[in-house]
Amino acid sequence: MAQHDYNISNQSGAAFRADLNNALSAIVSNNSGAVEPSTTYAYQFWADTTAGVLKQRNAANSAWVTLFQLDGEWSTIALENGTGAAPSLYFKDSGTDTGLYSPGVDQLGVATAGVQRVNFNGATEVVFNDTGADVDFRIEGDTEPNLFVIDAGTDQVRVKNLNGGPLAGTRNRIINGDMRIDQRNAGASVNTNGSYPVDRFRQDFAGGGVITAQRSTTAPAGFTNSVSLTVSTADSSIAAGDYYLLQHRIEGFNTADFGFGAAGAATVTMSFWARSSVTGTYGAALHNDNDTRAYVFTYTINAVNTWEYKTITIAGDTTGTWSTGNTTGISIIFDFGSGTNFNGTAGTWAGSNVFRTSGCVNWIANSGATFYITGVQLEPGTVATLFERIDYSESLRRCQRYYQVLGPSDTLTTGATICVMPVANTGAVNENWGMTEFKVSMRAGPTVSASSWELAGHHGNTPIIAAGTKYALFRYDGSNFRNPGGRLIANNAQASAEL
Amino acid sequence: MTYQLTNGDTILRLTDNAFIPPDPANTDYAAYLAWLDEGNTPLPAPEPEPAPVLTTEQKLEAAGLTVAELRELFGLPAPEA
């Protein structure tokens, strides 16, 4: 370290030589020292060994400007603001019009070929193409070169997929997952095996217990309905083959794109809201049509009578037989206490009819216990997206593919006019036909029933009924029905093509 | 569960008077087939009523003709009062 005032005084030869050497030492060491030189000059260097930086005196000789660290690294560099056409920092091979600059206060711009491409604007935004230039923005995937593209020239955004599924259309493969549609009961309760508390959701149970289920207005924020289940008769001694379930069956046409049963089967994600008076671990499963493939998953109710949002991501099954037609593609089973015959292992595909684990709660054993569920969604991909909202009429239409009320109403009605029977029967033929067209083409030829039928003037007689997917035919045979010429009226007439 | 054949191609489920079409995708029909496999037999279809024997007047009525119109058609004299 050496410093000098750069003033050689009149002195003897030896002293002069020593003073000169000191001055030269100060020059070659850039006036290095722990403190600044006692005498300073404009543009003078000072290697500040205390701060470890090289400094230079400003033009006014009033302050030091820090240049860089003495270990060779820069601490701070002050550049002029620059412009898009002449960035402050440019790179040799790209020319002086490609580099970084500051378009304004607290802004960092990136320019190429003299045009701003990106502006990092303070703490508020990052703007691409701020100057309206036709510059595309593109993100490549592992194998997909255009995973995400903004085409500035055409003002288009292009995205390959959303969470691994389609961008729009039907993400949720569950019909009536928000439990709004209840054609059969209009909110009334049901408590028999095989009954539907709301459309598309069926309760199945076998054992000494009884569950009363119905559409409820108890629902989490954003929903108006749920299905409520109440233990009306408890089963505290569940036999090995007993079961208590709520099921939803999805038609194979609507899950064919998942590709289950072969390599490359899609990963899917289940999500739903649940609330129970009984805490603990609950079981559920995805099954194929004939219950020879099953994926058991569990979820936990942490707090009593509190809505909780549950999600589970499931790698698709690469084996087994999975329907892709108008029979069951995937069935979703929620368990509420079943026998040991149905215990499996969670988190893996199995070749047996299982839908719970040995550690699951037996909710059915608690008299008066309640369980609510809504917002049920099954979608492709690994992300549980927000529940897909479907227009009410569209949701009803989807339900009517599987079940519909015959007559002028959308709920079961007494005295509903189904059709008008023909007036002109020649008398030579004993068959009298009437026809009604279904509101929606049904999944399969439906089962048609009513609590009673009435043909004008012929009370209590049941017609012979034949039904395809588009319409139902009603036929009265015999001379008693010649020239019926009136309305065919039914109480609670319905057509069911449920899975 | 009891079933009855009908004079159509449907099956009548007697527990709820439901008519089940012979559609392989109909789960009720699948249940009926399973019921048959268990060795059960449905009730026979009701005997269809034989075609009626119509009177001449009924035949005319079905054709939309009256006796007077028929007489006029064939140039027959009206019966004496």
Explained architecture:
The complex is a heterodimer of chains A (499) and B (81). Chain A has helices at residues 13-28, 392-400; strands spanning 45-48, 53-57, 64-69, 89-91, 95-101, 107-112, 115-121, 125-128, 137-139, 148-151, 156-159, 195-198, 201-206, 210-216, 226-233, 243-251, 268-276, 280-287, 294-301, 308-314, 328-335, 349-350, 370-380, 403-405, 416-420, 431-437, 447-449, 452-455, 458-459, 464-467, 471-477, 487-491, 494-496. Chain A is mainly beta. The radius of gyration of chain A is 40 Å and the shape is elongated. The relative contact order of chain A is 0.09. Chain A is built from two helices and 33 strands. Chain A has a seven-stranded antiparallel sheet, with no helix packed on it. Chain B has 81 residues and is of the alpha+beta class. In chain B, strands 1-2-3 form a three-stranded antiparallel sheet, covered by helices on one side. The model of chain B has no long low-confidence stretch (mean pLDDT 86). The interface between A and B is medium-sized, with 33 and 29 residues.
